[in-house]
Write a structure and sequence with these properties.
Three copies of one chain form a homotrimer. Chain A has an eleven-stranded mixed β-sheet with strand order 10-13-16-19-24-27-30-33-36-38-39. Chain A folds into two domains: 85 residues, MurE/MurF, N-terminal domain (Udp-n-acetylmuramoylalanyl-d-glutamate--2,6- Diaminopimelate Ligase, Chain: A, domain 1, 3-Layer(aba) Sandwich), CATH 3.40.1390.10; 205 residues, UDP N-Acetylglucosamine Acyltransferase, domain 1 (3 Solenoid), CATH 2.160.10.10. In chain A, helix 2 links the parallel strand 5 and strand 6. The relative contact order of chain A is 0.05. Chain A is built from five helices and 39 strands. Chain A is an alpha/beta fold. The interface between B and C is large, with 71 and 73 residues.
Amino acid sequence: MEITVKEIAEFLGGTVSGDENTVIRGVSGIDEAGQGDITFISNPKYRKKIESTRASAILVAPGIKSEKTLIIVNDPYIALAKALRFFDKGEEHPQGISSEAYVAESARVAETAVLYPGVYVGPDAQIGERAVLYPGVKIGSEAAVGEDSVLYPNVSVYRKCLIGKRVIIHAGAVVGSDGFGFANPGRENFKVPQIGIVQIDDDVEIGANTTIDRATLGRTWIQRGVKIDNLVQIAHNVTVGQNSIIVAQVGISGSTSLGRSVIIGGQAGLIGHINIGDGVMIGAQSGVTEDLEPGQVVIGSPILPHRKWMRAQTIFAKLPEIYKKMSQLEKQVRDLEQKSEKEK
Amino acid sequence: MEITVKEIAEFLGGTVSGDENTVIRGVSGIDEAGQGDITFISNPKYRKKIESTRASAILVAPGIKSEKTLIIVNDPYIALAKALRFFDKGEEHPQGISSEAYVAESARVAETAVLYPGVYVGPDAQIGERAVLYPGVKIGSEAAVGEDSVLYPNVSVYRKCLIGKRVIIHAGAVVGSDGFGFANPGRENFKVPQIGIVQIDDDVEIGANTTIDRATLGRTWIQRGVKIDNLVQIAHNVTVGQNSIIVAQVGISGSTSLGRSVIIGGQAGLIGHINIGDGVMIGAQSGVTEDLEPGQVVIGSPILPHRKWMRAQTIFAKLPEIYKKMSQLEKQVRDLEQKSEKEK
Amino acid sequence: MEITVKEIAEFLGGTVSGDENTVIRGVSGIDEAGQGDITFISNPKYRKKIESTRASAILVAPGIKSEKTLIIVNDPYIALAKALRFFDKGEEHPQGISSEAYVAESARVAETAVLYPGVYVGPDAQIGERAVLYPGVKIGSEAAVGEDSVLYPNVSVYRKCLIGKRVIIHAGAVVGSDGFGFANPGRENFKVPQIGIVQIDDDVEIGANTTIDRATLGRTWIQRGVKIDNLVQIAHNVTVGQNSIIVAQVGISGSTSLGRSVIIGGQAGLIGHINIGDGVMIGAQSGVTEDLEPGQVVIGSPILPHRKWMRAQTIFAKLPEIYKKMSQLEKQVRDLEQKSEKEK
């Protein structure tokens, strides 16, 4: 595939600085790019690489100047995404149901769905049009996978769980395992049956080896457009609001509810039964133990407002110095008191 | 299935407040319940929902009053568990060994065991009566699974590992991977073979994608009645004592030993070669680096006694204020000293 | 197998203290060892067990004295590793490709490779000599596995990813899932295609259920001799330098680069786009947000130099006491100021 810089700029809605007739054949990272490649600068940290890259063109944000051929766009990361979709058509799949997949008689699999070898689809399960189930995907009885969804190898969906349309689930993820519910914990550990489901709405992406537990009753609910990274734990009866972003290794405890557009940094943990407002941002490794109003930006374990935490952390390192000064002050004050006593 | 409130109360050992002839057809969450449903209040936080729920009856703890039909029980969560078991009989399984499962010739599989398609049972492995191996479960050579145990999709049990009776292992969990043992780490990284096993005793439950490493020598040992949540890491030669509870994403390092009824909150980490006494409670996100006497309640990284940590954390947020006051005090004391000097 | 203490000492390059004609038949842990077993002491914590063990011989470091039969070696842990390899020959595998494995027509599988039932090898994939793919391993199209590598059950390797020679990957690990790249996060969540690969060099070991994301462009790169524990998250475009050690549940964010021989303790997290120098040691549960020069030893979240953190942590527990003293000091200083005012 060959295309000129001018054509790419038109496709991306950007403007060209430099030779618009330069021919592009592919997309590449700034370090690896060679002649015929287009590359991008998104993180300002790498701006100086514009001069050293061998790429034939560079996607940049407004305000960057260079003798190199640039395509100036509002958001270079979105432009990159579009360029990648243009140059990379993704994997081609074999057609239909592999003879080495197992499909229960009562299951309904769309004719255009792709089932690789080693797939299992249980009784009364449904697989939508153009869905792709990679090798080793297991769909439990009465579960459903919507159209155009892609489940990568060895994903497990337990019975009755519902996966929407255009959902992507990466390898090894588990949807619908039992919630961790035991009465009289540490003594009797009496198991509470988990008879609810997991409902995953349209356009969700779920990372590799992430686990989402089914509800005790009702549903654990991942709403439309949510993106969840790898190795995340979502407990029973959690709700994750539309378009929220959950970075790797986060854990969300039971019955906690997230609003829309919440962003949670890696390795953060949330206790159960709390409400997180729309647009809240929670820093990496935070520990959240209370409700949060919409729009708050917090970090720490337990959390503080972001600025307050920054100031407190800065001083944390000075604690030995503070402790020493404190002892000195105590001595000085004692001396002053004794003097003052004598003077009486 | 239909049953009166009176009959349920008798079955659960509770007393009725309200109309004991009300007919119940199912169990539901307090928000979703409708006519004919019984629901429950366990967390006092939700007590006010008693008046708004449309459930026909509510399981509650003693002391709660309402015009609604209540069944008063000592522990509503245990009562819920019992009611759920009554109404939900769980999944029905096909009989016997699927023709699409692989069973080594020398393996012994009980006649009443259920092996779904895509199951692998290696040489000399044993599967007990009524055990259920969901699609994609892999049982290594010489490993054993006890009677009435249930292994969900894609669980991997390495060779020689022993799984007891009535054990539940959720999807993607790994039992018996090599312990992380390398001599001269960071330089030679010389692998120490891990030839021990994992032994899981009766009535244990293990969460989705949890990993339990085999011992270097001897065994990694999960004792009777232990419940482990999702994405937990148990390293080689760890012992987890009876009825302990380990919440999601906890990591326990090599050769550490837990007593009975230990409870560990989510995302906590324990270093290796330490002993944790019976009944210890470790807070979420804690970092434990020392032995703990029985019954201690600790939190923090590194840990402190719970109350001490709470007090210290409260003041952590005030560090900028403390630092400012300290500087003022220093100035004030300097001024006083100068005055005192002059007065001489 | 029978061998004398003298022969073992010669094999390990150690010296004997005690009866060198003692016959050894196996290796065992210090608590479980019986007559005919050799055991070892590596952690000084267990030194007193030398006298109580029933083992017939003990591998020890120089300087330890006992009436027991000892083999004195420079590094007992390395000696143990060698002894274990001597006594334990590992698992024997069936020959060749199971009739219940799926191999695409265009894939190239070496004649000496072992493919268990339920293995999937996609189009144009390559499997090297003597490689072992346990049941349920999935190799995507155009991916490659080098000679003598061992992939345990249910490992997923996405398309085009490259696995070197003598690599060990434990059950459920995922290599090549999409990096977590979304433009306009929290609002549009526009997916950036991830068209790069994962490259894993020779002699790497990867733990159970660990996830390694493919690069956006270029490669995520795990260099020679790296050892990664269970449940670790490696994001897109990360480089892990030779012989580095990454303990369980660590998370490394996108485009971060580690030098050689870096050691990262369990549950630590690193943000994206930073450089960690050769030989850096990062403590467990740390949070790293900045570049680190070679050889630094850090801990904490955010990190501090190890000693500084130790001192600050010690004082953290005294914060309530400091706060109280501060209030007292303020009062004392106020009193002194008033006195001084009056005296004027």
